[in-house]
Automatic annotation (TrEMBL), chain A:
PANTHER family: ABC TRANSPORTER I FAMILY MEMBER 6, CHLOROPLASTIC. The keyword ATP-binding applies. Gene3D superfamilies: P-loop containing nucleotide triphosphate hydrolases. This is Fe-S cluster assembly ATP-binding protein. InterPro entries: AAA+_ATPase, ABC_transporter-like_ATP-bd, FeS-cluster_ATPase_SufC, P-loop_NTPase. Residues 141-167 are annotated as: Disordered. Keywords: ATP-binding, Nucleotide-binding.
TrEMBL record, chain B:
Pfam families: SUFBD_core, SufBD_N. PANTHER family: FES CLUSTER ASSEMBLY PROTEIN SUF, UPF0051 PROTEIN ABCI8, CHLOROPLASTIC-RELATED. It comes from Halopenitus malekzadehii. This is Iron-regulated ABC transporter membrane component SufB. The lineage of its organism: Archaea, Methanobacteriati, Methanobacteriota, Stenosarchaea group, Halobacteria. Belongs to the iron-sulfur cluster assembly SufBD family. InterPro entries: Fe-S_cluster_assembly_SufBD (IPR055346), SUF_FeS_clus_asmbl_SufB (IPR010231), SUF_FeS_clus_asmbl_SufBD_core (IPR000825), SUF_FeS_clus_asmbl_SufBD_sf (IPR037284), SufBD_N (IPR045595).
Length: 307, 474
């Protein structure tokens, strides 16, 4: 079981005189939990998501983001682990290293990459994650050894055969995995030969985000407005996918949303309200209903009275 | 030697051994009539070919060096007199360079990384050693010969197929008067390929560079002549993504393609010249009624490249398709494009150009679409996309259009952009590291080219692009 701990997180736009957006965010999300993060526009929800994933456009000025792991989270790692392998300070790490440790960001506006098929992309992503994990957990002696082996390997194949396939997941195994996950999300197989998000409808892009989360099996998935732009049928498919992430993989979910609607399908264990770059109020599922009925003003009033 | 090291090695050092070769030959005279006579005599050529060479030489000497094109690459370092030692048959300068081990490390390194089998390396690298063509290729060639298909070295074609060569060689397609370097080519050309496909014949396997490895066609002034008769079809692939080391720093090839009525020719080339080379080529096709020409070019390497494959749509309903990709790194100026002349009604052309620049490199798309008065019902679509890696690199677009007919359909689109930070972040958030993310975006960007190539070439091109990028990304 993994836990994502965000303590006193302060962040600003990474440029000269950049605006401060996060002013002390505290949040904890564990495997198997579903959290909803709500709040008005500009309160810092999306920035929180991006900073967790390591977006270079933001600079963290204070606080920490820590990922705690336990035995279960590292059962794919063969080498002997030390205590420090179970506690990672994410702020020191590259976005791909965070991904390898089990952080997933579902984008509000996923990038469109022309010329790269879904199949190619997904397989490469799975293999990259596998390789990066081995590297992160291996101690330095092991790494040197691996580098030596690489050096010796060279290119033994002719160009007719293409590069040696040294990725962890083979084509057949990958196809099987993919088919299963796509059925779950009710996605058409034709998706796989299309270019990554290129020309996808808003709904297709969101389905694709959840598909990627299902394939990469993250410890914690941060989903940024995954419900925006979805019609009711797609909303149900996507919701089923999110529930399956939790139920079948034990993924912890931090779901950013403006609307109660998706919470009817993906019931949160915890609801947080963000105002002016901090968590202003936390509660159970009933808090979301209250917000739907009464808006955010009362939370603001409450927060400032307390302060 | 890693690619990263290569970036740090200056060009002087990398090509040092070439300089030693040159210094021993300073005594030789410039490019003269006598040199041309020697070449022609050595090849035992018919009189008409000698005359054509001499006429071309005269035109070359009379024409000024092109310097007035807007934004053209700097050619001031091209010294044609230095070619002489390399083309005179009586001067054996190549003798000392016939050993694989003497090639510059970067070229050897790239060969290794591309996974080129050892046996092919010598031939591909342009040194003297010969490559024994495999039996399978020979069998294929025999099978084609039964159908009347001719595929041979250009020098051999002058002897064995004299009439057809005499009619087509630098007469109506690329005359030496076309430009200064076409004239130079006409004077000193050597080697190359001759392809003749008779009526109603389809060459069902792409004619590939592998065939040419044991010919002299790996030179720098090679001439390619392709004649596809009525209703025939052929896919010709020239070159190889492996780097070609040139003894002299000028490559000036010539390509002429005749596409007959209802015929279809696809000409694909992936070339990677060593980074001291000036790559100045002239390539042209003439397409008859309802014929179809396709140019697919990947321009890698070289110090400066000026290459604009052109198509003359001569017959009604003829069509053309250009797909080009250019990659410019540090110190490189890659000026490429396409030219299409719509000289008949209902002709159609599409041009798709992709360019990548990084580390201060420059790419330029220079294109011309000319639609003649009376070419009614014709259509053209031009799309140029440029991808830049950093703020130091440049990319220009110069798409000229001359439309002299009103009843036509013209479309033009151009995009120039820096590789997107959001795109990179998206891929990184999925586990790809920074380098792999950029490589994935670039391989997607050039995918329209690679999907047109046979798989082994596509794989090589992709690997080559990866190698080119490593230095800047590592």
């Amino acid at each position: 079981m993994a836990t994502l701990e965000i303590n006193n997180l302060h962040a600003e736009v990474a440029e000269e005189g950049g605006e401060q957006i996060l002013r002390g965010v505290d949040l904890e999300v564990a495997s198997g939990e579903i959290h909803a993060l709500m709040g008005p526009n500009g309160s810092g929800k999306s920035t929180t998501a991006k900073v967790i994933a390591g977006h270079p456009a933001y600079e963290v000025t204070d606080g920490e983001i820590v990922l705690e792991l336990d035995e279960e989270d590292v059962d794919d790692i063969d080498v002997e682990l030390s205590e420090s392998d179970y506690r990672w300070n994410l702020l020191d790490m590259e976005p791909n290293e965070r991904a390898a440790l089990g952080i997933f960001l579902g984008f509000q506006y996923p990038a469109e990459i022309e010329g790269v098929t879904m199949t190619n992309f997904l397989r490469q992503a799975i293999n990259a994650k596998h390789d990066e994990r081995q590297e992160l957990f291996a101690d330095e002696a092991d790494l040197d050894e691996a580098a030596d082996e690489d050096e010796d390997a060279g290119y033994e194949t002719s160009p007719m055969e293409g590069p040696a396939d040294d990725g962890e997941i083979g084509v057949a195994e990958f196809q099987e995995l993919l088919t299963a996950k796509m059925e779950l999300l009710d996605m058409d197989e034709k998706f796989m030969q299309r270019y990554l998000n290129a020309g996808f409808s808003g709904g297709e892009k969101k389905q694709n985000e959840v598909l990627q989360a299902a394939l990469l099996e993250p410890a914690i998935a941060v989903l940024d407005e995954i419900d925006s732009g979805l019609d009711i049928d797609r909303l149900q498919d996507v919701s089923e996918g999110i529930n399956a992430l939790r139920d079948e993989q034990g993924t912890g979910i931090l779901q950013i949303t403006h609307y109660q609607r998706i919470l009817d399908y993906v019931e949160p264990d915890h609801v947080h309200v963000m105002l002016d770059g901090k968590i202003a109020k936390s509660g159970g599922a009933e808090l979301a209903t209250e917000l739907e009925d009464e808006g955010y003003d009362w939370v603001r009033e409450e927060a400032y009275e307390a302060a | 030697m890693s690619s990263e090291d290569l970036q740090d090695t200056d060009t002087e050092a990398r090509f040092e051994f070439k300089k030693e070769q040159k210094s021993a030959l300073k005594a030789d005279k410039g490019l003269t009539e006598e040199t041309i006579r020697l070449i022609s005599d050595d090849k035992d050529e018919p009189e008409w070919m000698l005359e054509r060479r001499l006429r071309a030489l005269k035109q070359f000497q009379e024409m000024p060096m092109p310097t007035d094109w807007p934004g053209q690459p700097d050619l001031s370092e091209v010294d044609v007199d230095e070619i002489v030692p390399y083309i005179r048959p009586d001067v054996d300068v190549r003798a000392g360079v016939d050993d694989w081990t003497e090639l510059p490390d970067d070229i050897k390194d790239t060969f290794d990384k591309l996974g080129i089998p050892e046996a092919e390396k010598n031939a591909l690298s342009g040194v003297g050693a010969q490559y024994e063509s495999e039996v399978v290729y020979q069998n294929m060639r025999d099978r084609w010969e039964e159908k009347g298909v001719i595929f041979c070295n250009m020098d051999e074609a002058v002897q064995e197929h004299e009439e057809i060569v005499r009619e087509h060689f630098m007469t109506k397609c690329v005359p030496p008067s076309d430009n200064k370097f076409a004239a130079l080519h006409g004077a000193i050309w050597s080697g190359g390929s001759f392809v003749y496909v008779p009526e109603d014949t389809t060459v069902d396997m792409p004619v590939q560079a592998y065939f040419r490895m044991n010919s002299e066609g790996m030179g720098q002034f090679e001439h390619t002549l392709i004649i596809a008769e009525e209703n025939s079809e052929v896919h010709y692939i020239e070159g190889c993504s492996a780097p070609k080391y040139s003894a002299f720093n000028l490559h000036s090839g010539g390509v002429e393609v005749f596409v007959g009525e209802d015929a279809h020719v696809q000409y694909s080339t992936v070339q990677n010249w060593s980074k001291n080379t000036y790559n100045l080529n002239t390539k042209r096709a003439i397409v008859e009624e309802n014929g179809r020409m396709e140019w697919i070019s990947g321009s890698m390497g070289s110090k400066a490249t000026m290459l604009y494959p052109s198509t003359i749509l001569k017959g009604r309903g003829a069509s053309d398709n250009h797909i080009t990709i250019a990659f410019a790194g540090e110190g490189q100026d890659i000026d490429t494009g396409a030219k299409v002349y719509h000289n008949a009604p209902n002709t159609k052309s599409t041009i798709e150009s992709k360019s990548i620049s990084k580390d201060g490199g420059r790419t330029n798309y220079r294109g011309l679409v000319h639609i003649a008065d009376g070419a009614e019902g014709s259509s053209t679509a031009v799309e140029c996309d440029a991808l830049m890696f950093d703020n130091e690199s440049t990319s220009d677009t110069m798409p000229y259009m001359e439309i002299n007919e009103s009843n036509v359909d013209v479309a033009h689109e151009a995009t120039v952009g820096k590789i997107g930070d959001e795109d990179i972040f998206y891929l990184q958030s999925r586990g790809l590291d920074d380098d792999d993310a950029k490589q994935m975006i670039v391989s997607g960007f050039i995918e329209p080219i690679t999907e047109e190539l046979p798989i082994e070439y596509a794989v090589e091109l992709n690997r080559l692009v990866e190698l080119e990028m490593e230095g800047s990304l590592g």
